Amino acid sequence: MAKTKLDSNLTCRRIVAKFGTSLLTAGSNRLNIERMTDLVNQIAQLHDRGVEVVIVTSGAIAAGRERLGLTKKAKGVALKQVLASVGQGRLMNIYERLFEEHNVTVGQALLTKSVLVDRAGYLNTRNTLLASLEMGVIPIINENDVVAVDEIREARFGDNDNLSAMVANLIDADLLFILTDINGLYTADPNKDPSAKMIPLVEKIDEKIDSLVSGSVSGLGTGGMVTKIEAARLATASGVTVVIANGSEKDVLLKVAGGKACGTRFLPVKNKPDSRERWLLSGLSTHGKLTVDDGAALALKKKSCSLLAAGIIEVDGVFQRGDIVDICDVKGRKLGSGITNYTAVEVQSIKGAQSGNITDLLGYDSGSEVVHRNNLVIL
Ligand code: GLU
Q1: CATH number of 286-378
Q2: How far is the CA of 253 from the centre of ligand 1 (A)?
Q3: Which of 8, 153, 225, 341 is 20 to 30 A from 214, alpha carbon to alpha carbon?
Q4: Residue-level pLDDT at 58
Q5: Cα(61) to centroid of ligand 1, in Å?
């Protein structure tokens, strides 16, 4: 199937649309076919107008629960994995049938974090997704819940919000829709505070935004607002605009793609990172953390300097020379990521020291910067 030319009235060319469980079930215990039909109709229209679309879908566990006649939320990893294995095929079957009505071909991709942590796995997955889009196929992605468990360190995304941001980072999308059952980000919890107002535009995800969402959770899905903001942070840092909106609003995908304001829009960083920088920022292969003092934080943010030992006050994790580390300020906020010239043990010994003293402290010198600015991406 060949690709259609992009309709110039649309404001996006490549999108990731994430559908959460509470949206797909319309708040019930089972998948809501009417809701899914509506979402598929909108995606098919965008596809028909030349937009490249990748769907990240939840709902496998809900579909499994329905098939097995369980009414309560699943507890325990093994049971959830059984439900996901029962439900994933059913979920795909529904998408397959609904897209068939529009003569659109879909493909299934079940991803785990451990696959993407490996740079070769990241690139292979990207190649498959981009080749699918090239052929006019819509990839439908979910986490491979059957094999991914928390116990294996960093092997699991755990929620599809973060997975969707990673996919947007991976395929260089220009727009990530996180569709859910609430209208967007509010100044307070709208269920508890009637004066809560929706925030239409977020230019930067700062401490104020973080403090609005801490502690929020939602119904059957795994992610509350916290994971949505985490996802928005990664996606916007990767150069992707993010819209969190209510998937039950009529034609919400078509409206946003046409440039209308719906839900909360998060603006991307101004300088779009290239593929290597997006990989650094993704956090997939991060081995540790360097905490820097205020002076170093300012220098990194304002002047895109290298990170010197003198500004480092704390070292976390076990990393080798050449590994990716996160750089955080004293409040623990991530400033960026970079490739370190020194191991964790070495940084422990040289932190706070002037670059000229490195040889005295270690007996050798692997460079006057701990992270050179060419190997550094600042958020
Ligand atoms: N992968 C899970 C499912 O398909 C959902 C995870 C989530 O909603 O964040 O049921």
Answers
A1: 2.30.130.10
A2: 21
A3: 153
A4: 95
A5: 7
**pLDDT tier, 194 (very low <50, low <70, confident <90, very high otherwise):** confident
| 14-276 belongs to CATH 3.40.1160.10 | yes
For residue range 111-149, list pLDDT tens digits in order: 988 888 888 888 899 999 999 999 999 999 999 988 866
> Is the Cβ atom of 338 under 6 angstroms away from ligand 1?
no
- What the block records as the tokens of 145 is 């819940």
The model's confidence at residue 3, banded by pLDDT at 50, 70 and 90, is low
Does 300 or 150 have the greater pLDDT score?
A: 300
> Where along the chain do its domains lie?
14-276, 286-378
Question: Which atom in ligand 1 lies closest to the alpha carbon of residue 143?
Answer: 1
CA dihedral for 333, 337, 340, 345, sign (positive or negative): positive
| Residue 220 in this model has a pLDDT that exceeds 60 | no
Residues 2-10 have a mean pLDDT of 77
* Residue minimizing CA distance to atom 9 of ligand 1: 159
Q: Is the CB of 221 under 6 A from ligand 1?
A: yes
pLDDT in tens, 277-330: 888 888 887 889 999 999 999 999 887 789 999 999 999 999 999 999 999 999
